[in-house]
Amino acid sequence: MHTREEKLEAFGRLLDIMDALREKCPWNAEQTFDSIRRLTEEEVYELSDSIIAGDRQATAKEIGDLLYHMVFYARIGQEEGAFDIADSIDKICDKMVFRHPHVFGPDAGKETTAKEIADTWELVKAKEKGGNKRVMAGIPQAMPALLKALAMQEKARGCGFDWEKKEDVWDKVQEEVAEVTEAAAGASADELEMEFGDLLFAVINAARLYGVDPEKALNLSSEKFRRRFTYLEEQTLRKGISFKDLSLAQMDAIWDEAKAKGL
Q1: pTM score > 0.70 for this model?
Q2: pLDDT tens digits, one per residue of 236-262
Q3: Residue 225: which domain range?
Q4: Which uninterrupted H or E stretch holds 164?
């Protein structure tokens, strides 16, 4: 591992490279906040993939890619006279110090648990902002729906609004299943859509309460479906037949083969 001095030197090198690229590379020089925003979103997903895969070398690379984007934004902000990278770093440092009084403030050294911190996190944030900002206001509208639902539930938990016992959530899930079933029997398309949304929200809540990352869980199931469907497709091609010539029972039999193979 690198020393503190080496880490500072590495960060300084990144700033120097950004300065050079912004001043001497035509492509880098013409980029704006808007033009690189989409690329940043892509980098976030690539970092997430590397973490899920457990590939630490890939994670190190993706962190570097994302850090480059953060320095890029700060350089543009500097050119506009709005802020520079030191402002961004100072803001996050101030925020973390304020939000962790048990580490940096008058409560430093006071014994506390991770759960106690998480359960009051949103209240601390509200105090930081003077109580003028609504708890849900910080969740981006453009955030993927599954992640948005999870973020809302976590923020509600941080204000103490959560199930007392995680087992109680299953009554809510069953209630939503019943409402979807009823709506499917004759409700309007809009009503059915809303009921499906309520059911998905309840299932995501259940996953959260049981310590399961619903995004990761759904990705695992999706990849499992991909593997088994690919096996089904390959078997039909190998036998020289097409899907339309197979009955559902025949497809199910091949699907069961894929499951037996551990796919």
Answers
A1: no
A2: 888 888 888 888 999 999 999 999 999
A3: 216-260
A4: none
